[in-house]
Specification:
By secondary structure, this protein is an alpha+beta fold. It has one domain: Alpha-D-Glucose-1,6-Bisphosphate, Chain A, domain 4. Helices cover about 30% and strands about 35% of the residues. A 7-stranded antiparallel β-sheet has the order 1-7-6-5-4-3-2, with helices on one face. The protein has a two-stranded antiparallel sheet with strand order 8-9. The protein starts with a helix and ends with a strand.
Length: about 190
């Protein structure tokens, strides 16, 4: 068998494997849902202001550092942020529904809506002065065959992000410490 024929067979096999990988990616579910909860050592009325304002979210969640602009009201429905950042891409976050001291719903559109995310944060009084917060987030990666593989791991990937953000929210609400989840391993900085 000639070397050229062996190389042709190898390239054909590689192409078949890559094509199979892409076809399987198209067949995988593109949607996902993640839920995390935490007990915060503060009443709902102390937690809620950090949830109903797009600008307040930057104190306890990862946020684009460049190209970000806030829009709409300072707090409540319509409070939002849009960005165009090298790391986060182009996107928009907007608070869509608010029930004072009980629930906040939001939506995120990334890269012109190619990725859509919706979220809900529910607050329930717990104990004498605590709050049980339940954070549910769901999304759809659309027809991107590579992101079909990621969708299956979102409970792990996005779940860790939600957990880190909830810890940062606890530190902010209870201790007044402003830090982002990426800085979790470093000592908190006062804001």
């Amino acid at each position: 068998m000639s070397l050229i024929r062996i190389a042709g067979i190898a390239l054909g096999a590689l192409a078949a494997i890559l094509l199979g990988f892409l076809v399987l990616g198209f067949l995988l579910p593109s949607g996902w849902e993640v839920e995390r909860s935490a007990q915060l050592d503060a009443p709902p009325e102390a937690v809620f202001p950090y949830l109903e304002s797009a600008e307040a979210w930057t104190l306890w969640t990862p946020s684009p550092e460049s190209g970000a602009e806030f829009f709409g009201p300072e707090a409540g429905e319509g409070s939002g942020r849009e960005w165009d950042d090298d790391f986060y891409g182009q996107g928009e976050f907007i608070i869509t529904q608010v029930t004072p001291n009980q629930e906040v719903r939001y939506s995120v559109a990334v890269e012109g809506g190619a990725i859509q995310i919706t979220g809900r944060m529910s607050l329930t009084p717990e104990g004498e002065a605590g709050t049980r917060i339940v954070w549910t987030e769901s999304g759809d990666f659309g027809w991107n065959p590579l992101l079909g593989y990621v969708a299956g791991r979102m409970d792990e990937l996005q779940g860790e992000q939600l957990e880190q953000s909830l810890r940062a929210l606890q530190a902010l609400v209870v201790e007044g410490e402003v830090f982002t989840p990426e800085e979790e391993d470093r000592p908190p900085q006062d804001g």
